[in-house]
Amino acid sequence: MSRGFGGYVSSTEVKTNIGYQSSTTTNKRAAAKATGGDVTFVTAGGQLQAVHTFNDTGTFTPTENIDVEYVVIAGGGSGARGDGNGSGGGGAGGYRSSVVGETSGRGSSAEAKLSLVAGTAYTVTVGGGGASQTTSNTSGNDGSNSVFATITATGGGGGGYGNGRTGGAGGGSGNNGTAGAGTANQGYDGGGSAGNGSGSGGGGAGQAGSLGTVSNGKGGDGLASTITGTSVTRGGGGAGSFNTGAGGAGGGGVGSTGVGVGGAGTANLGGGGGAGYQGASGAGGKGVVIVRYPVIDDTRPKVLNTEYLIIAGGGGGGGSVSGSWNGGGGGAGGYRNSVSGETTGGGGSAESPLNLVAGSYTVTVGGGGNGGAASNAGSDGTNSSISTITSTGGGGGGVSAAGRTGGSGGGGAGGPASPTLAGGTAASPTQGYAGGSGNNSGFGSGGGGGAGATGGNGSGNTSGNGGNGLSSSITGSAVTRGGGGGGVNGATGGTGGGGAGGNSSNGGAGTVNTGGGGGGAQGDANRSGGNGGKGVVIVRYLTADALTFFTSVTGGTKTTSGNYTIHTFNDTGSLVIS
Fold first, then answer.
1. What contacts 73, CB < 8 A, 6 or more positions away?
2. Diameter of the chain by CA atoms?
3. Same structural domain for residues 339 and 286?
4. Domain shared by 333 and 451, yes or no
5. To the nearest whole number, what is the mean pLDDT of the chain?
6. Of 285, 300, 315, which marks where a domain is finished?
7. For position 399, what pLDDT does the model report?
8. Is 44 found in the same domain as 97?
């Protein structure tokens, strides 16, 4: 790990400290938002967070406005030194925390986060522990305060030869003394007088010091925090002397008996020092300042979750044969949709979005099929595609034959045939409906299938309408696309760009960029079916995702709507993510 801005994080560190396992993480940087201290990265609350640990005095400078959590612990007080009489252990340094779900010292709730201003250099003072007491029959020395911005943690109180000293957590008392008082929201009192020649423990962040007659004057326990990603207990009080009591959990020093020296409080845990019976007392432990805030996780694989609407070119309407055959309507281009809450063609549910990484993606917009010339079936539309998703071109309308298979099927021809000329079937995977069948006892031709409905069947001399398309709001406004072409005698095209059937005329063309099918041609003369409409490819993604993970995304006509950025391709092109 590195000191200062960001810090390049190796793939091993990412796996160990963050939990991501992509081999692509090597030498990518988790973007810290401040400088100062030793910077590491952890996951907490479902977010990657930067942690700045100050074991020594320094400066914290945000590069943007941020709200931070903190643990600020002052230096612990040193124990007292007696001369054949018990004396008190040092109190832990004051313990202040704003970590959500944890507690501050003396059983108080977590404090509010700090709001810090970009470009401001905040001095971070890490308080030292109180110095060892080497003079007989003398109380210990107080620890020094730790300071971060507006937050000050008070140094721990020195242990008492008589009365314990006041501090972040209070010092324990010596024989016949009174307990040192702790500070509200920072630490507990030291233990009071035991009255039997033994010293009491200094207060901890999470517990008062014990009397010399209880647990041998043990120091009060500290508090555990996971601000660094691992649970660490800090802020334990030092033990009193005479009975060799234990220091409080979290760095408190042990007390001594005989001529032994008291144990020092642990550095950077703010532990109180243990008292000396006839030897020197233990020094208090230095404090610590730890700051944490969420950052952009630039170590994860960069993926743009992309919704799409991909419509192929519509099929051309069938041509006619004078006096005998009417052309069927062309089927709409295949309609594939992954927009949440909408449907894909043929009645399918919305598909799964694409997860696109940086790169260039060819976007193919399928052309509409040509309307069939006299005596010819309509041509199929061509496919539209992006990445792994392909929509199939609509089937051409039939003439003297069944409709053709496609994204949506073409309509069957109407005329003197036996059996009935069927509509073309829809392609797989589901993306449209089948075309309608032509009539074999009259001249009614079938309508082309649409994205949202089957083409109508011919009945007698009445032709079927084109199947309706589907509405999508992928661009921010509801637009219906993917209508099938109508049969003849003025049968209507399906809503969403389907061409109308000819009425003593050529078939109507499908609407460009809707994938609508072309209308069939009427057989009172040799006529041509209508051309199918060109398809369209539309993709969208959350604007915030693109700004988080990528420099730019280009291609097609780029617009925005609400939280989304939309790229509309009316012609073949490329979507470039960088």
1. 92, 93, 94, 95, 96, 146, 153, 205, 234, 235, 269, 270, 287, 288, 289
2. 128
3. no
4. yes
5. 90
6. 300
7. 86
8. yes
Which residues, including other chains, have CB under 8 Å from residue 162's CB and lie 6 or more apart? Answer: 139, 173, 174, 175, 176, 177
Closest of 161, 146, 166 to residue 77, by C-alpha? 166
Q: How far is it, in rounded angstroms, from Cα 468 to Cα 282?
A: 86
Tokens describing residue 83: 């001369």
- Cα–Cα dist 341/351, whole Å: 10
Tell me the pLDDT band of 417, cut-offs 50, 70 and 90.
low
| Domain boundaries, position 507 | 302-578
* Strand 389-391, strand 384-386: pairing: antiparallel
Cβ-contact 372, 379 below 8 angstroms: yes
Residues 382, 261, single domain; the answer is no
Q: Cis link prior to 429 (omega < 30° from 0)? A: yes
152-163 residues labelled b (16+ CB within 10 A) or e (exposed): bbbbbbbbbbbb
Cα distance between residue 180 and residue 191, in whole Å = 8
101-150, pLDDT tens digit by residue? 999 999 999 999 999 999 999 999 999 999 999 999 999 999 999 999 99
Q: How many CB atoms lie within 10 A of CB 303?
A: 15
Query: What would the DSSP string read from start to end of 202-259?
Result: PP-SSSPPPPTTSTTTPPPP-EEE-TTSS-EEE-PPPPPTTTTPPPPTTTPPPP--TT
Residues 493 and 484: beta-carbon distance below 8 Å: yes
d(CA 557, CA 560): 10
CA distance linking residue 413 with residue 402, whole number of Å: 6
Do strands 335-337 and 573-577 pair parallel, antiparallel, or not at all (unpaired)? unpaired
| Rounded Cα distance, 47 and 60, in Å | 21
CA dihedral 558, 564, 568, 573 (to 10 degrees): 70
Which two tokens mark 237?
A: 């009080």
- Kindly state whether residues 202 and 94 are assigned to the same domain: yes
C-alpha closest to that of 569 among 310, 356, 393: 310
pTM, two decimals, is 0.55
Tens-place pLDDT, residues 468-521: 999 999 999 999 999 999 998 889 999 999 999 998 899 999 999 999 999 999
Task: Average the pLDDT over each of 13-17, 71-75, 559-563 and give the range with the smallest value.
Answer: 13-17
The burial of 569, by beta-carbon neighbours within 10 Å (0-12 exposed, 13-18 middle, 19 or more buried), is given as buried
Average pLDDT score over residue span 352-376: 95
Measured CA to CA, the distance from residue 479 to residue 470 in angstroms comes to 8
Q: How far apart are CA 291 and CA 272, in angstroms?
A: 23
17 band by pLDDT with thresholds 50, 70 and 90: very low
Strand 573-577 to 359-364 pairing: antiparallel
Do residues 501 and 483 lie in contact, with contact meaning Cβ atoms separated by under 8 Å?
A: no
